[in-house]
Design a protein that fits this description.
heterodimer, A: alpha/beta, Urease, subunit C, domain 1, 18 helices, 24 strands, globular, B: 3 domains, five-stranded parallel β-sheet, binds zinc ion
């Protein structure tokens, strides 16, 4: 592998507290290295260039059953003729296009947040067919009959930890996510809503309990990424209260609240819909182990897709175009795909846009908040450069607010917020912070030994949106894969996984359950490393876990 | 010389053949003879036994029916590909990895990709391309569904273990399985004959399934205008109304025999959607048996379309009419057709107007000799693979049960395209 030097660039490397410092970066064997004395194969002149580690998207729906349903459901939007590789829509791109679009924006690692254990093979196969990027998934738990039954029978925490660890290993995932805790399961028993302290009819347990138990399991197993939580009451006016209660349910253990914008709604005012970003960010700012990503809404056609079949079913009347699909899946979870068009003529959509931006701007520490649109739920990931400009340029966002078809100025404090994100804060929020929260020690960093995933931007480009949309160079594992917008080389990233240890006796219990109630055999549920590389087509990289304490 | 150690016993084997993909098989391989140890329907067992190598030792590649070595067959294939103006990759029975490879091969040649069952599965997909749809999966039905309606004329022949393994099960997690009610509506004689268990939870109702829409209207209006007797109608309606989780199953491939097929599947789906306003109900449309789901899913993530695309240099295009393989073949618009038939023993219908290359399992039959035949192994028997089950959401690993003399279809594709 040829050696490489990025010379004289302005480097942003938040992990090493390097912000806008002139530095040379050396690369050898796919890793960042100290200054090389040997002859360097390729030197890139980085004067007037900004150098950052490759960006990381920690919540983007890029592979698995529901993504594929959306692709097939919405084929009339696959006519994107200004594109030079395939025609699929930006909000439901093919796997090839997903990889191409991400790498061209300088994103080098992306994480699929909703891997149904039973559907993990499909998720991984799709991600394996997504070029360039490293990837990983969060396995969905907390609506599966096996776990809810364990909890309702008062199983002890260590047994639950063993089950969680088994699932991580079996599904080749890097984290655990809970979606509408207990609610998806309750929907199968015809419950239409489930509040944080409400008992499900079938199992008589509350979402609060599920969150607490799973957060503890993830913490005690030493999984770097905290429990990833999609709160109860998605999209329901007034839901900020259940979001705060869900945060409290973790009782101080690390949790990550995802697409928090969709869970920051008040029900004040004549429309019974208001922003509760101030209340929510107050918690985000003061609770140390809490992180969130936003799920910013931007205007345009998209598709919403979620494991939250309960709420997606409740929202299907808003489908645009008018079609949708919900599914109950294998006593594990569910899914709902509802196409949607956000428009600035809608008071609710316009305010959702403002609530997302308020959330970004009111959260003080860029280490605690991550840049997402919950692709494609709020908008396709291709709109990230636009979103970055909204955060960095107050005039730009104020102008957009003024131009909106519907007047929401009395309902948002956006104009009163003076803050503009700095380049350093953007670097933190899209690089070092997601790497840290995922336990990716070799990513999001330009330290010696880190993976050489690097993005180079042209600081001569005045428009910040243009600059972020078109890096001059993107380097993946030491290879220049993008140069001036053109693909120079195809590479295939790895799948990042965790495999915490567990007591194998849980497999005996699971086998009994599978033999009696499931329709497949337990050994076929599990995906081995060999299957990942030989059949699915992606090599795994294991991130170490350190057990915190045995309960 | 065969030794004891040559006999291999495999457990939890996933059956690659029907789209239920039962994965509880125990198979012994002895000198490449496959013996299924489970007590399962003969039709399932015979699919494996079809592939006993003893039968195929002699089957080699051939050119126009004349046996030849593989190298020659590959060379001739490359020649035909080189001379062809338009190549159709006609997937007849495939898994995920074969589909991946046939797409990549087609992109090299600006070819067309279709599947033999596209007409049927495109109808299924068209439900949620046009309106709302509530779906469910087999484990959910097994454990939660207290009332199951199966519209069937021949389903238990196509999916031999559907009733015993998935519907009339001994155990259910969330309901008392004894109280399950299973209504099999359609050709009663066939259904009773093909269903391999007697179970008092099953009620067979003789009905002409082309009139399913009438029956659904009757349910909605609570007034019987269908040909079902009032006794059965009242029982059905009461069961539906009292059910905690109703499942309705059908196979579009079967309903496709009626001109009303589209209307019927839309109406079932609309009926289920309406029920969900107040109760829980869901649909399961059973897929075809030739890797339809594996194919359409893989196509979906790689191209955004379920089938019938043509690569055009920079792009690919989708057109469900223009890129229908049988149409292209009959009209003589394509001059080379590459059939890929890794799983089934069905008879391929070749057309002599164009050149034909068949990459097929050794049990593949055809009406006329292809220009080139190259035998390939079967995923799940000869090499590893990956398939989707009929409910679209469960995907399973196929294993390699024996040392095979045959290459995989994807390897053959790679070698003849390069
Ligand atoms: Zn999401």
């Amino acid at each position: 592998m040829p050696t490489l030097c990025l010379k004289n660039g302005n480097v942003f490397d938040p992990i090493n507290k390097v912000f806008n410092k002139k530095k040379d970066i050396y690369i050898k064997d796919g890793k960042i290295t100290e200054k090389l004395s040997e002859k360097i194969a390729e030197t890139i002149d980085c004067r007037n260039k900004i150098i950052m580690p490759g960006a990381i998207d920690l919540h983007t729906h890029i592979g698995g059953g529901k993504v594929n349903i959306a692709r097939l459901m919405l084929q009339e939007f696959h006519n994107n003729s200004d594109n030079d590789y395939d025609l699929t829509a930006d909000f439901v791109p093919s796997t090839l296009k997903t990889g191409l679009q991400y790498i061209k924006m300088g994103y080098t690692s992306c994480f699929e947040p909703a891997v149904l254990p039973i559907n993990a093979r499909q998720s991984h196969a799709e991600m394996a067919d997504t070029p360039f990027i490293d990837k990983g998934g969060y396995a969905l738990l907390g609506n599966d009959d096996f776990l809810l039954d364990l909890i309702s029978r008062g199983a002890n925490q260590s047994e639950i930890n063993d089950y969680v660890a088994f699932i991580l290993k079996a599904t080749q995932c890097i984290g655990i996510k809970v979606v509408n805790p207990g609610g998806i399961n309750a929907f199968k028993f015809n419950q239409r809503a489930l509040n944080v302290d409400e008992n499900s009819v079938r199992y008589k347990i509350t979402p609060r309990k599920i969150v607490r138990i799973l957060a503890r399991a993830v913490y005690e197993l030493g999984v770097p990424h905290p429990l990833h939580v999609h709160c109860s009451n998605l999209g329901v006016p007034g839901n900020f209260k259940s979001t705060i209660e869900t945060i409290k349910a973790a009782e101080g253990l690390p949790v990550h609240i995802t697409h928090i914008q969709f869970h920051s709604y008040g029900n004040n005012g004549d429309r019974n819909f208001s922003s509760a970003s101030a209340e929510i960010t107050d918690y985000v700012n003061k609770i140390p182990n809490l992180t969130c990503d936003v799920g910013q809404v931007l205007f345009g056609q998209t598709a919403t897709m979620s494991g939250d079949s309960m709420k997606q079913h409740a929202n299907h009347s808003h489908a645009h175009p008018d079609k949708w699909l919900c599914m109950d899946i294998e006593c594990e979870a569910g899914c709902g795909v509802v196409p949607f068009k956000y428009t600035d003529q809608s008071f609710v959509n316009a305010l959702q846009w403002a609530i997302g931006l308020e959330t970004f701007l009111l959260t003080e520490d860029p280490d605690k908040i991550f840049l997402t649109t919950d692709h494609p739920n709020g908008a396709p990931f291709t709109s990230y450069p636009h979103l970055i400009k909204l955060l960095m340029d107050k005039t730009f966002r104020d102008d957009l607010l003024d131009q909106m078809s519907v007047d929401i100025s009395k309902h948002t404090i956006l104009k009163d917020i003076k803050r503009e994100y700095t380049m350093s804060e953007i670097a933190t929020m899209t690089r070092s912070a997601p790497a840290r929260i995922l336990g990716l020690k070799n990513k999001g960093s330009l330290s010696k030994g880190a993976d050489a995933d690097i993005t180079v931007y042209d600081s001569n480009i005045i428009d910040i949106e243009d600059m972020f949309a078109s890096p001059t160079h993107v380097i993946k594992d030491g290879h220049v894969v993008v140069k001036n917008g053109e693909i120079k080389k195809y590479t295939w990233g790895k799948t990042q996984v965790v495999k915490p240890e567990y007591d194998a006796s849980i497999e005996k219990k699971l086998k009994k359950y599978f033999d009696k109630y499931h329709t497949i055999e337990l050994p076929n549920y599990t995906i081995s490393n060999d299957e990942m590389s030989e059949v699915i087509g992606s090599h795994v990289n294991e991130i170490k876990c350190a057990r915190k304490r045995i309960s | 010389m065969p030794k004891i150690s040559d006999s291999l016993n495999h457990k939890n084997v996933v059956c690659p053949f029907c789209s239920l993909h039962c994965d509880d098989l125990e198979i012994t391989v002895d000198d490449s003879k496959l013996s299924v140890r489970n007590n399962i329907p003969k039709s399932c067992v015979s699919k494996f036994e079809q592939l006993n190598l003893a039968k195929f030792r002699e089957i080699s590649s051939s050119i126009k029916g004349n046996p030849c070595d593989q190298k020659k067959a590959f060379q001739h294939s490359r020649q035909l590909i080189k001379e062809s103006k338009e190549t159709v990759f006609f997937n007849s029975s495939v898994d995920v990895n074969i589909t991946r490879e046939s797409l990549s091969a087609a992109s090299e040649l600006n070819g067309i990709v279709d599947h033999v069952n596209s007409s049927v599965f495109l109808k299924n997909i068209s439900i949620y391309q046009r309106r709302g749809y509530m779906a469910t999966s087999l484990t959910e039905i097994k454990n939660k569904s207290d009332v199951i309606i199966v519209f069937s004329n021949n389903l238990f022949k196509t999916y031999p273990r559907l009733m015993t393994k998935f519907l009339a099960t001994k155990d259910s997690f969330s309901i008392n399985p004894k109280n399950k009610k299973i209504y099999v509506i359609g050709n009663k004689k066939n259904n009773k004959r093909d269903c391999d268990i007697k179970d008092k939870r099953i009620t067979y109702i003789d009905f002409d399934n082309k009139n399913i829409s009438d029956l659904l209207d009757s349910f909605t209006d609570k007034k019987n205008i269908s040909s079902v007797s009032n006794k059965f109608f009242d029982e059905l309606l009461t069961s539906i109304e009292c059910s905690k989780y109703l499942s309705i199953l059908w196979a579009t491939s079967e309903l496709n025999n009626y001109k009303e097929c589209n209307e019927i599947i839309y109406n079932i789906s609309a009926y289920v959607v309406a029920l969900n306003k107040t109760m829980r109900a869901a649909c399961l449309s059973l897929a075809g048996n030739d890797g339809d789901v594996s194919f359409s899913q893989t196509m979906g993530w790689m191209t955004g379309f379920p089938s019938r695309i043509k690569f055009t240099g920079k792009f690919f295009e989708y057109d469900k009419d223009a890129y229908k393989a049988t149409q292209l073949i009959n009209s003589g618009n394509s001059d080379l057709v590459i059939y890929i038939n890794s799983l089934s023993e069905k008879k391929l219908n070749l057309n002599k107007k164009n050149k034909n290359i068949v990459i097929g399992s050794p049990s593949t039959k055809y009406n006329i000799e292809p220009d080139v035949f190259i035998p390939c192994g079967t995923p799940g028997v000869d090499y590893k693979g990956h398939v989707f089950r009929t409910d679209n959401v469960v995907s399973l690993p196929l294993s390699s049960l024996r040392l095979s003399p045959y290459k995989s279809a994807q390897q053959i594709l790679r070698e003849i395209i390069k």
